[in-house]
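About this split. The held-out portion is used to measure sequence recovery: a designer receives only the structure tokens and must propose an amino acid at every position. Recovery is the fraction of positions where the proposal matches the reference. Here is one held-out target exactly as it appears in the evaluation file.
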């Protein structure tokens, strides 16, 4: 998953079928961690076209259930070949759920007391790089209340886009405020679409970036979701034994491709003063 970065898609866009999209229903007493197997796609449209697609997997985690001790087979805040650590998100504290609740409250969102589903990469063999993660924050009745898009760049910086009052399948917009790629200015904005099929069987995220001249980058990540089990974790590691190292390697490889195509390079600006950009 990249945000206006140096690289993914073979031109084709991920399907966005509207009829299958629905609000995630009430989480009940506890929800199980999920793992998604799918594909990342990314296409830069100009001044030189650059596209690629690659297989991936990701976690889809019910953070309230996770913090209630319902991690199942997933290693939560402990070392393992594939694990999830709270400190890889937010302000780096040991409790990312507390952080997201505080962030929402600071922006006047106090009714997102239902499940907070986090779509993110895990740590693999102790290493992770998370270009973008998505927090789906629900009301107590299970309806979607807010989405927080958490972005990291390769300079060790992090920024969040808070999408207030979102809806599944509807285009959401945010002005770009954070430097991600040296081949894009900090200008223009993002267009997001988020989809989840009934029963949380599949998810698709589309992120399109427009600069001052119009559409520039089209990105998507999609995946089929299944419970995290010892078997699904083994399958993920067997198929992609160094997946998160591959993420950072592909980012730099695509940057070299863009440089070879003489795409203009922009010096990194100062990070934005505000940690959160709210729509």
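Reference sequence for scoring:
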């Amino acid at each position: 998953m990249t945000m206006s970065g140096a690289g993914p898609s073979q031109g084709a866009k991920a399907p966005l079928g509207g009829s299958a999209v629905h609000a995630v229903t009430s989480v009940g007493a506890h929800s199980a961690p999920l793992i998604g197997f799918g594909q990342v796609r990314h296409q830069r449209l100009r001044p030189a076209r650059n596209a690629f697609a690659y297989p991936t997997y990701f976690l889809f985690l019910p953070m309230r259930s996770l913090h209630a001790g319902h991690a199942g087979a997933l290693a939560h805040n402990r070392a393992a070949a594939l694990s999830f650590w709270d400190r890889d998100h937010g302000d780096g504290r040991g409790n990312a759920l507390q952080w997201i609740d505080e962030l929402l409250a600071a922006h006047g969102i106090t009714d997102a007391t239902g499940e907070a589903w986090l779509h993110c990469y895990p740590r693999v063999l102790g290493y992770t790089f998370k270009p973008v993660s998505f927090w789906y924050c629900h009301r107590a009745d299970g309806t979607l209340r807010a989405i927080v898009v958490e972005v990291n760049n390769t300079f060790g910086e992090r920024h969040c886009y808070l999408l207030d009052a979102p809806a599944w399948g509807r285009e959401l917009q945010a002005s770009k405020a954070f430097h991600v790629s040296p081949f894009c200015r900090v200008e223009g904005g993002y267009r997001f679409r988020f989809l989840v099929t009934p029963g949380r069987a599949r998810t698709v995220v589309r992120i399109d970036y427009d600069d001052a001249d119009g559409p520039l980058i089209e990105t998507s990540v999609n995946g089929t979701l299944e419970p995290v089990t010892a078997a699904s974790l083994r399958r993920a590691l067997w198929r992609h034994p160094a997946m998160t190292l591959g993420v950072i390697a592909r980012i730099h490889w695509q940057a070299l491709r863009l440089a070879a195509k003489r795409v203009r390079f922009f010096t990194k600006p100062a990070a934005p003063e505000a940690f959160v950009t709210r729509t």
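Annotator remark: Residues 34-278 form one domain.
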